Structure formats: C-alpha cells, structure tokens
Amino acid sequence: MDRPEIIMAPGPTPVPPEVYLAQGSPLVYHRGPGYGDLLREVTEDLKRLYKTKNDVVIFASSGTGGLESAVANLFSPGDTVVVPVAGFFGERFAKIARAYRLDVRTIDYEWGRAVDPADVEKTLADTGARGVLVQQSETSTGVIHPVEDIARVAKQAGALIAVDCVSSLGAVPFETDAWGVDAAISGSQKALSATPGLAFVAISPAAWEANETAQNPRFYFDWSLYKTAYALSSPENPFTPAISLMQGLRAALRLYFQDGPDRAQRRHELLSRAVKNGVRALGLDLFGDHPELAWAVTAVRAPEGIDGDELVARCRRDHGVILAPGQGPLKGKVFRIGHLGYYDRLDIMRGLVALELTLESMGYPLKRGAAVAAAEDVFSQG
Amino acid sequence: MDRPEIIMAPGPTPVPPEVYLAQGSPLVYHRGPGYGDLLREVTEDLKRLYKTKNDVVIFASSGTGGLESAVANLFSPGDTVVVPVAGFFGERFAKIARAYRLDVRTIDYEWGRAVDPADVEKTLADTGARGVLVQQSETSTGVIHPVEDIARVAKQAGALIAVDCVSSLGAVPFETDAWGVDAAISGSQKALSATPGLAFVAISPAAWEANETAQNPRFYFDWSLYKTAYALSSPENPFTPAISLMQGLRAALRLYFQDGPDRAQRRHELLSRAVKNGVRALGLDLFGDHPELAWAVTAVRAPEGIDGDELVARCRRDHGVILAPGQGPLKGKVFRIGHLGYYDRLDIMRGLVALELTLESMGYPLKRGAAVAAAEDVFSQG
Prior knowledge:
The structure is a homodimer. With about 375 residues, chain A is α/β, with parallel strands linked by helices. The first copy, chain A, has helices at about 15-25, 35-50, 65-75, 90-100, 115-125, 145-155, 175-180, 205-215, 225-230, 245-255, 265-280, 310-320, 345-360, 370-380; strands at about 5, 55-60, 80-85, 105-110, 130-135, 135-140, 145, 160-165, 185, 200-205, 295-300, 320, 325, 335-340. The longest helix of chain A is centred in the last third of the chain and has 19 residues, at about 265-280. Chains A and B meet through helix 1, helix 3, helix 4 and helix 10 of A and helix 1, helix 3, helix 4 and helix 10 of B.
C-alpha cells in the first residue's frame, strides 16, 4: 500500500489537512484588500507567537534566508560578531556572517553542549563585538541554548542579539520583548506545521536603528522595504509573495492558537517527555546537555554496534517513518526524533513503535512495548 | 455569489486545478529519493523551457530574489554594469545593482520604448562595463526588448549578460544557449501558471567562471551551493526547499509541455493577437513599441477622459476580473491585460467582455460585442 511517509524529522513537520486545503485553494491576488487582510492576520498571529510588539516581516524563503537577513540588515563589513558554535546551525550562522565579511569570533563547543552565557560575556568584553548570533534550538543536537541569559549579557555589553529560533518558536518558551531579542528568525515548517518556504523575523527598535546605518548590501531581504509595504492602507509585500504558502500559514496559525496561546507549547513539552521516557525505556541514552529542555527534537545516542544512519534508513524503508540522522561529527553516532508541530499523543506512539521494531530488526535487545508503556506513563500523569 | 476573482494581471496567472491539487498533497520529504526525482524532473523541464544545456538552479523566493542572485554571483563592488531602463523592472535591476555597490550606468528611455542594442553597444564601448542587466519583457509596459541582439553586442564587448525573463519565459521565444545569455532569471507564477514563490536561473559556463571570482557577498542565493547539492546522487537543495510549490511546479510543467514544446508558446501568440485586436476594435490604442511582440501582457492607453486606475478598480469590483494598473509615470494613463499562463480562448473572451462592460459603465462610447467579435476573427483564422 502506497502511503505518504510519516515525517518525524525536525522540519518539515506533519501538515494538517486544513493547511493543505488552504494552500490548494484559489490564490488571493496579492494587491488589494483580500491579501491585505491575510497578511495582517498572519503578521498579528506571529507577533502573538513571538510575544512581541515589534515589527514582524515575512519573506518567501527558507529559514536560512531569514538568518541572512539579520546579517545583512544589522551589520557592516568588518563589524565584529560573536557566534557560539555548538552544532550545524551555529556553523551556518558563522558561515553567513563570514560571507558578508564580518569579523566572526566563534566560541567553539563540542557538539551537544549548551552555550554558556559567561563565555559570551567574556568574548564580548574581549572583542567589543557589535552583535551576537546564536540559536535557541540547535536542531543538529536538539540542545536549547539559554537565550534569555545570552540576551542579557549581550544587552549589558551594548551588543545586538540575533536569535535563530527556527526550530524552537512555538515549541519552546521564547519571549522576544521580555528577553530583549533584537532579531528573532523563524520559519513556517516547524512548530506551526505549515509547509516550508516562509521565513519571518521580529525586529526590535534597536535593530531598526542599526539597520539605518548598516552597510551590508541587501535588496530582497531588506527589512525596510517590507516595513514600508506593510504600512500601506492595505498591507502588501514589496515583492510578489508566496501567496499559497501564506494561505497555508494562516490556516496553521489558526490551528496553533485554537486552544489558547500556551496550550500548543504545553503539548510540545508533554510529547517531548513521552519520547524521552520511551527512548530511555529501551535502554538508549539521550544526547546533549539538558535534554529536559529540548521540547522540539530529541537526539539519541545510537547504541553500541548500531549505526545511526542505518537505523534511520531502515526505519524509513520498513515503516515509512522518517527520523533524522546525525550531522557532521555526530554522523552515525546519534539519530534525532522530531516532535514539534502538529503531533498528538498517538502520533508519538506510532513513532516509538517504528523505532522499537527497527531496533529489534537490527539485533538490539529490547522488551517489546517498553517505549510505548513508558510514554503511556507520561501521558497518564498528564 | 462569492466566486474567486479572475486574475488577468501579468502574474500571478490562473492556476490550473492540477497545480492546486499537487501543492495541496502530502509533502515529499526533501532529503532522499522522492524529492530527488521531483527536483530532477523540474530542473530538466526548466532546461527544456530555457532551451539550454546550462545548469538551472531553483530558489524559494520571488523573481526578485533571482535577479539579486545574478548581481551577487556575477560581480564585485565597483564593477561597471550597463542597465537599460525603460520601465519599472529596468529600475528594479538598477536598484539591486546599486544596493551591491556596482557602478551602474543606466541607459534611460521613455517608458514604453524598446531598448536599442546600438545604445547598449555604445555604452559598453564607452564604459568597458563587465555586464549588462536587462529584461526581456518589461512587465510594466508590456514591451519586449530585443535580447538576442543585446546579447550579441554584450558578447562582442566581452561583457556578461543577465536577462530578467520572469514574465516572458514560456510565453515569448527565448533561446538561452543560441543567444548566449549568461544568467536567465524567471519565476513560477507567470507563463507556467504555478503559484508564486519559486525563482530559477539558467547559468552559463562564462557565468560560472565569473562566479568564482565575484566578491559580492551571498549565501542563500549562492549558486554554487545549489549546484553542489544538485550533484548529489539524489539531488537536493542546500536549504529546505518550498516543497509544496515544487510539487505544484512539477504539475504545471507537465501541463505546459503536454502538447509538445512549442504549442504553449503559439497559444500565447494567438491569445495576445486576439486581445490586441479586441482592444483596438473598441477604439483603444495599444501602448509601447512593437506591441505585436508582446505575447505576455498588453498595455493599453486609457482613452481620453477615463482614468486607467479607476477602470482597473471598477473591473475588479463589478466583474471580479483583475487587470493591472499603470506603474510610475504611466499611473492612470495605461492599464494592462495579462494573457500569459494557463488561459485559453474563452478565458480571453471573458476578460474582453468585462473590459467592454466596464468601459461602457464609465461613459465610454462603444459598440457592444465589438471586442469579442474582433477576437473571434483572430481565432477563426487560427
């Protein structure tokens, strides 16, 4: 039977039928009141999600385009920025900053470590850097970096802070305004469970001030063009938007908020706990610092004698369940289970069953049903 | 009755049900064989459309992102480029080049003129410029610039040529390899009638050579990252692609080519002729040089005493048919009828009827049915 594969990777995430229907529905023309209403609703909902009064701009691009927009709009060639690197996406932010000829001072951690705000504080003091570029959820390791504390030391040093919360916004507590984040970048295909192709950025007043003098070249990702077009009596995008994806995102945001602002986030915490207990009940070890905070994605050490890449390949081939492999130095050594987005309890169970069956087929000794039982324990406690 | 509006603007264009269904269908995961097959099919079909053996890269962005990619990947700050400006999109290409601190030498035409290759030749000789940035279809005026001749003078001067064929590729004859175009940029929501959010670029060997030394900063739009990812055994995008839009684009390309490579283009010529004869039969004047070449969009002078913007607004309000207004200096003076994309004969008739009714309601004297009769004459001749 040819069934769609079940994605349990950390993005794209499972897309609800409401989103598919919305993006398969007739286009709203992008000039005029229909699209203006759509853009306003989506923008206002994103502000709620970001917990911000700041401007939010939306690009037709992947999340990486959003990251690049922060580098291009905030800085000038030669500006010093501090970039903690503890995984693949830390490396990506550093690469983008180098591409724009910033003076990039990385703080290099073993992959799987959480960033220590004291390291950022010290490096800011040593370098007088103008900015900090960091992830909240380092998707490659699942680790949540302490953005609130990092933002505080950045502010104290008079530096701007840009946060890649692509795989965390909506899944993990994030407070744009309360924490003082200057540019918070996220995307459509993660906790919101819309489809990929939209990136958004929440931009603080300090970021707008920096934008005025930043010399890095930009056009498509120029925040100010989006702000100007949004300020029209019927809000617009400066360039033809990905209208269908916007229609899908509107449907996704309505679903996300249907039970109130915090319910979806609590669901992420619960599902994360169920996955982690299930995995531990199979005798597997979680990977990375503070896994209890990793509500978006769970990184698991491949057990002795089992190759993580092979496990991921078999699970997809035999069960149609897509987990994510380890990246970079973690290749083969870890695998990752995404549980952000439009999942509920039984979706998690299904994934744990596929994991059990796959491990068993690879000769790993386990007690059948152990992962599911442990997850049921979590759910029964609520 | 609440019906979807009928878009007769030059993009987005009418989206066939097959495209909506494809982009409302379950996501193909973007790593592995399913997406690899999709990306390969779309890329090969685009090469057919471009008439090229060159590499084609696809971005999740609007067409403007594709234009920016040409500026970022081909040039370095201070490089001189010649930019003929005869409308809104000529201005846009110049703005992008200035944003990247190129030395931009515009050739300024009255809006509505076609670029004269002799002017480009002279400016190249005077400046020793490294590149030419030009549109094929200047969407704001409907005018087709003579890309074949412009490319020849560029080659003779040793300059690169980047062509914005966003609103012309697939609607108007375009020969990437035969004409020697180094970067040809187009988008999903025009002649192909997929939805907006994808841009593509055909990149010549000379463009790749320039890419190696070009110093302009780039990351998300860095062509080489896309080339590397496409070369994997199962082709990928370097960043999470707009998967749903790619599924829609595949469906659109299959429809486009279903009657053979040139049939769709001949359809555009026929529909364009029908629109133009219909408009003339109402006593209206076409706007711009060589309207017989403007197979993508027809620009029409608003008649004496009729404001073009009001005409467009009434036609939308009263008939749900979206025409496009004049831009910049043409505001109020012209209106535009898009006939590129998934239109057939009766769709054109429907648009002409809406135009007749709207003009009549504004007090313009006309003979009812005149536009439709003139279009029928065109169709009867084939």
